[in-house]
Amino acid sequence: MILCRHLFMTRAPFTxxxxxxxxxxxxxxSETSRRYTxxxxxxxxxxSGVDNLPxxxxxxxxxxxxxxxxxxxxxxxxxYCMPAEGVPLCGRxxxxxxxxxxxxxxxFASLGVRKVRLTGGEPTLRPxxxxxxxxVAATDGIAxxxxxSNGVALARRLPALRRAGLGALNLSLDxxxxxxxxxxxxxxxxxxxLACVDLALQLDYRPLKINxxxxxxxxxxxxxxxxxxxxxxxxxxRFIEFMPFSGNAWADARLVPGDEALAALRNxxxxxxxxxxxxxxxxxxxxxxxxxxxxxxxxxxxRPFCGSCNRLRLTADGGLKVCLFGxxxxxxxxxxxxxxxxxxxxxxxxxxxxxxxPQHAGMRELARAKNRPMILIGG
Length: 379
What we know:
The chain is α/β, with parallel strands linked by helices and 379 residues long. The protein is built from 13 helices and 15 strands. The strands form 2 sheets. The chain has a 12-stranded mixed sheet.
């Protein structure tokens, strides 16, 4: 019997036994979830066709989108993502190997995941990034491979990533002013990111998505500048509300609500054109009349979209997070290394998903809660 400790990092302890593997775990959600998880051994045999069902939580939300952090390392030190003093990093052996990553991608694809987004840290710091993209794109069932990058070291690698199967791209860019960029990122790099924007458009990443975290007193006076950025470029600038994570000095006084940003744009341009958003999309979409690109507002603090959430997250060290803001994790790395078979891994994933809460806590409560820094979760 193999003992795998801390597989789940949650509250009250319980034990799961799968094929003579004892998994110490914790549970907080409900007696329904307790029965499901404690009976996971042989569950696929007893429930006809359960492995063919989509990944659903207790509220009926279907999860077909997996975000995978490829590394905890980054070449920037953005204030909303990483504490000023940095973060302790896992050792190489604590991170998922590429073989483990490939196995988990195949597993999630078999459970109905159709879109994978590669994040970090900064994914371009992985020397084998093109090979990872190629393997994920070749996985049966995966329709879209996307990536989020800060763009600083991406331009020289982007053509190869495009050929490998990278189908969608988000670039993080919080200011269009060089001095502010260095103050926010604690590193230079704005010109490289802007050059990467142009290259990505040449490689037909359309719309190219630009992630912009708004913070009062820092870049809230650039909202209209970013709108002008969409005038002649097929890009989607996504204004993201500042979110609380460990070590990022979040305060509601620094939050720019999405409605406030939208009002600033209407004050400048008049009426904006509303656009249809994709199902399970996180952003409300608008276009300035006459502009090629569009604007999105991701208001996870003031207008949570938990009711349509379809996302799961896999940290670089193999932790499965069913909610970005939840501290609870399921260590798929430990399960893999304990020799757990795919059928039982699937049952564990389903059990974790059944503990997903209806909605994340309010922003002030989140600011007091313990969670990983964003850099260790994956953007």
